[in-house]
């Protein structure tokens, strides 16, 4: 019985469909590899990344795929393997922020830490950037774990930066309850 294969050649690259499984190391079925096999998979992974964060632009999706790829041949882009093997988990993780430290915070028992403020600042700045506002000008921009004393101004900054992002998004700014223990000292107003 004659082998039934189809070979397409484009830009010097062969794409085969129909080689016996053993030709590509599989135990059953037929081989399907090359650009024709890679392109629909790459498109599917791009859609997966986009679905993880709908606000991404095409350039941002492309960057997530490239940054998450495993380089398999000579370092960097090359003709045979492009940027390498694109990895769905790494690409999606690159566009979804990591979970918060000590999540969830429990009122009355979780001790506030500099990392909590820093993580909130990072998330708020990302939202502000997506709404065209730019990063917020934090009163005390550098907080250091186990060295910085958290102050009322840090919470006030978060509230202001977040309120501005809400307004930029066409939404009403949130109303924050006032905690008498969170009043700003006169020298911080």
What number is the mean pLDDT? 79
The helix count comes to 5
Order of helices and strands: EEEHHHHH
Q: Give the number of DSSP strands.
A: 3
How does the helix and strand content classify structurally? alpha+beta
Query: Number of domains in the coordinates?
Result: 3
Distance between the termini: 87 Å
Binned strand content: 5-15%
List low-confidence stretches: 1-11
Shape: elongated
Strand order of the largest sheet: 1-2-3
Largest sheet: 3 strands, antiparallel
Radius of gyration: 25 Å
Q: Can you give the helix content as a percent range?
A: 25-40%
Describe the structure.
The chain has 189 residues and is an alpha+beta fold. The chain has three domains: 1-33, no CATH class; 35-96; 114-181. It has five helices and three strands. It has helices spanning 35-52, 58-67, 88-93, 114-130, 152-168, and strands spanning 6-10, 13-20, 30-33. Strands 1-2-3 form a three-stranded antiparallel β-sheet. Strand 1 (6-10) and strand 2 form a beta hairpin. Mean pLDDT is 79; it is low at 1-11.
């Amino acid at each position: 019985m004659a082998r039934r294969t189809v070979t397409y050649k484009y830009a010097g690259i062969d794409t085969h469909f129909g080689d016996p499984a053993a030709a590509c190391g599989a135990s059953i079925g037929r081989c399907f590899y090359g650009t024709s096999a890679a392109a629909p998979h790459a498109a599917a992974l791009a859609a997966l990344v986009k679905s993880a964060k709908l606000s991404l632009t095409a350039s941002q999706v492309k960057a997530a795929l490239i940054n998450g790829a495993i380089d398999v041949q000579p370092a960097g882009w090359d003709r045979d393997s492009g940027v390498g093997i694109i990895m769905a988990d790494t690409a999606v993780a690159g566009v979804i922020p990591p979970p918060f430290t000590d999540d969830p915070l429990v009122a009355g028992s979780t001790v506030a830490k500099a990392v909590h403020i820093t993580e909130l600042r990072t998330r708020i700045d990302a939202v502000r950037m997506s709404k065209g506002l730019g990063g917020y000008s934090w009163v005390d921009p550098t907080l250091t774990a186990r060295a910085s004393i958290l102050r009322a101004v840090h919470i006030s900054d978060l509230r202001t930066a977040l309120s501005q992002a809400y307004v930029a998004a066409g939404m009403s700014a949130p109303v924050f309850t006032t905690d008498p223990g969170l009043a700003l000292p006169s020298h911080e107003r």
